[in-house]
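In line with agreed milestones, the collection of sequences with tokenised folds has grown. A representative record is reproduced below.
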Amino acid sequence: MKSIQEIRSSLTLEEKASLCSGKDFWNLKSFESKGVPAIMVADGPHGLRKQMESSADHIGIGGSVPATCFPTASAMASSWDTQLLNEVGNALGEECRQEHVAVLLGPGVNIKRSPLCGRNFEYFSEDPYLGGKLAASLIRGVQSMGVGTSLKHFAANNQERRRMIIDAVVDERALRELYLAGFETAVKESSPKTVMCAYNKLNGAFCSENHRLLSEILKEEWGFEGFVVTDWGAVNDRVAGLNAGLDLEMPASGGYNDNLMVEAVQNGTLSENSLNDAVDRILKVVLETHTALQEEFTYDAAAHHRLAQKAESESAVLLKNDKLFPLNSEDFRTEEKHGSQEHKSPKLALIGSFAKEPRYQGSGSSLINPRQLDSAYDAISRELGGDMQLLYAPGYDPADEEPDSRLIQEAVNTAAAADTVIVFAGLPEISESEGFDREHLSMPRSHNDLISAVAQVNPRTAVVLSNGSPVTMPWLDSVPAVLESYLGGQAWGSAISDIIFGRANPSGKLAETFPLSLQDVPSSAQFPGGSASVVYTDSLYVGYRYFSGTGKPVLFPFGHGLSYTRFSYDGLKITGRGTGRTVQCRITNTGSRDGKEVIQLYVHSESSSVFRPEQELKGFSKVSLAPGEEKTVEFRLDDRSFAYWDPGAGDWMVESGNYEIRIAASSADIRLRETIRIDSTQTPSQWAADLRNRIPEFFSPAPELFHDISPESPFRKLLGRPIPPPHWDTREGFTRNSTLEETTRTFIGRILYKAVMREGSRMMSQDADEKSIAMMQAVIREMPLKNLGMMGGDKISMHTVDSLILLLNGKIIRGLGSLLRRK
């Protein structure tokens, strides 16, 4: 096999530039005669979404090959189990091998800044330490099979609204400590083959051409050796992107950007060394993954289904349980006596359409075509040996958020006739998806009203939730048990049955905070921002980092989760010197069932020059214990366990002082604590030393702090530069980054908008559901003009786009002339 250098040396300038963009939607270019094979990439991350070219798209509209649908990231993060994530990653790698897919596009490690982000179901956590560790484990599992991953979306892609053009305005500490930290962990600990840059701008520069992000931090500081690929259609300026460290553009650009790179090298505005570096990085991944795909491979679909069931069993979170779960299946079975059926016990009622029609995954580019699908109704029926003692009522129409009095009354009657009721509710598909954000935290009224009505007639009512992100629960006090299943994948029904009847002991814990109301969430003051920018005035105060320090109550805290057994914590012991500490404690199962407990370690700084969260997660461990068994759990702490980012020093800083080590069952349930002293040789910069005097407001944040983006605001002082305006200046005219929705201010824009919507509808299948249509429409509304070619294919070139922009700006003669001169 030829070396990378030999292959690159044999390529012409035009061929090297061509190699830096896709052949089509899912394939990279090849030059077989010169030793460059073809490889295919495909969407993930909780299952393989391999599309055929006849149905290629990047938002999940078209079909895909059958694959195992594992629980989404929001669910699996609640397992807090790195080994489990590694096993799932290994299975995903096997499925890629069978389907000859070289790179799986995932996982997503973006921070859940707001519970409203429409794509939160695809992300792990509000905490970068947890998210980074889980992502690293998944990546190692996938790549153990010789295929690659694409860590995404780099960086600060924390909303769907205007995600292709929004400028995320983030202060340096929040950027480093929250929004980059998970990526850093995953890159350093698992070496993903590729990193996918986000659509959005970060502090004024598109992520696809952000030199500091892609080259200085990712490649130079963190030592990333793979290639950087765009999110699909995320290129803004291709030459600027390559200079910044963007290696591969996806999908194909019809040769437009390839020609620009050739011209740039020829006129000296692009160094050929930069192009060569991109080519070398692409060739490295192509050759490594192509080798692994040479042999035929077949995975065990049944084994993967069992793993999907195990993953959901480990991930579901028992939020509340007042002596209702687990149920004894024997209590609900019938037995035959003298040739007739005799009721041995009362009946069990399953209420809610989700019991028979599961909501098991999110929508968009991660939409999996599952090999099989387990409903809770079928699984529970099997557990009971049939449905003789099983009642059912749909309770609501999944496609209608408004209550149906007839369906609710039917459910109430069914509940009244049963001994025990389980209501299956949550968020319908239309509520959360790639392409748009949620507007509130409420479940549909049809679900909330149903739960309240059923609980009034049957006090033994449990609720099983299916949703990708937090919801409010106005009925919480009236039900004895709540199980959060998140979006549990294709084996969801069997896993839920196992938990309900105690065959599996729930061990999941929340990887995000469930707030009482949206108004309590600091990011809500600036979410989703304006037409041009979104200002992260919440800085470090995301999730438990805010709630732990303010005493503001929450619905359920980060790290919370119950079990069918009990655990005691004792024997805290801390050894070592400086920041190199070993922390040990004993965990004992004091109950009567086998169980698993997630032990969490938080660090609290008792005094600091800079504002810091009340506590930060710096370690976790999941242990399995038999009744009466005890184990010693050990954590290793290092410099980063105590450090903050000092913008003045441009480095991580550990201050001298006292730090409390907290061992916890959740962020709000501290079981053991001990204070240690650290004497550091580092000295905070003047920036950090003066912070308390300059911006005292951030040391005890009040809600009004997060609303203020005035020129004299505390956040302006923290940011260290003027806050950009939230909205575009419409007087400047339309550009390539104007959205289709914005163009509807003009007559020509309205014609264009309708034409593109028609094309989007044409691409949809005949039986497209409301969710798919809404997602398609949201994507088109917010599509920048520069991305029209992604839907128009060969019909719309960048020359055509520029001609349309002239027309939109009222330059009719020039615009028409440009269109007529189109080659």
Remarks:
- The domain at 1-37+157-168+195-292 is CATH 3.20.20.300 (TIM Barrel).
- The two ends are 41 Å apart (CA to CA).
- The chain has four domains: 1-37+157-168+195-292, 306-335+343-535, 565-686, 730-820.
